[in-house]
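Fill-in record for Cation:proton antiporter.
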Amino acid sequence: MEQLNVGLTVTGGLALVVGLLSSPLDRSWLSAPLFAFLLGVALGPYGLQWLDPTGWGDTKQLMQETAKLTLGISLMGIALRLPPSYPFHHWRSLVVLLGIGMPAMFLISSLLTYGVLGLPLLMALMIGGAVCATDPVVASSIITGGVAKENLPEGYRHLLSSESGANDGLAYPFVLLPILLLTLPAGDAWRDWLGMIWLWEVGGSVLVGIVLGWGVGRALEWSETRGYLDQPSFLSITLALTLLVLGVGELLSTNSILAVFVAGLAFDQEVGGSERSEEDNVQEAVNILLTMPIFILFGLIAPWDEWRALGTQGVLLALLVLALRRLPVIVLLRPWLPALRDWPITLIMGWFGPIGVSTLYYATLISSRTGYDLAWTVGTLLVLASMVVHGMTAAPFAMRYGRWRQRYS
């Protein structure tokens, strides 16, 4: 019970600090995720030893479930933050990013892991799948603050939000393919991947998201027209929808993470007007309340000994993945992405593809399904590298771009 009270104190106190100092933190090199991670390290076994996660049961399973919940609520916030018509008006850009860019990032990350660490190809592919998605939680901390809104174009922020919202769920097939090839005969693996994974777990999740999102949106409109809805209930309804979709998605063995994002988009087509004023509250709740616990937990269970065992190869891999996983792909795809009108915003889009909570989720999923903890070790090292490098450069790059735009506009 004492551990629980310490955890509640730390999480609540940190959320208050981040909320009260949101503007200075937004303009500093210390992002909220990195701040929470460092606090977790300070309180954990390698710091003050006030919290000992080893007594909480299976820490990787705890991380997996916490990451899934955090992703779900974050994806709902992203879906509500986007203009309702955005995915339909900009579907070509999303198809390019998700259909060409994401597989390319998967292959680049996998080949870099294979070449630098010398792992078996299937293991390298699993790690490449875990890190290929653009994380919505860390991305939100980069593109939703005052600095981003003041300096970065709206089109860029919407494009990165929609990409990060969709590709977390779509990373699932890339992670599962090497797992299936490792655990089943090749013919059975490909059949399950095309049939079960793509047709049911991905396709079924889209169907579940559309039905539940549209249904709850219609129910909200029905309740409001009859005077049954108290306006402040909107936030609780969106959070309840997230939990409903996560639960139904898991019960039906579909990809519940993708289902939440689709449900948010479908819900957003049915609501409007005064309800949309609450969207910022949804996202703010995600940033302050839910980013904190997941990264505090990450700091508590960070595998420092395993990271040290990787040595210079781990550092080299982190640098190469951050430099080559995304930037060359975005530069090559720029002609098909109208939101990237000038080269500076193209370079920013190519640079800020953070690795975060989605990688924590998939790394634990790989570990639980295969027993290979190396995916957890390498994946979490890349998450730490992304938090440090992307967190430290987000505000300076955004402000530099703002000055450039003022000078040449």
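KEY FINDING: The chain is about 80% helix and 0% strand.
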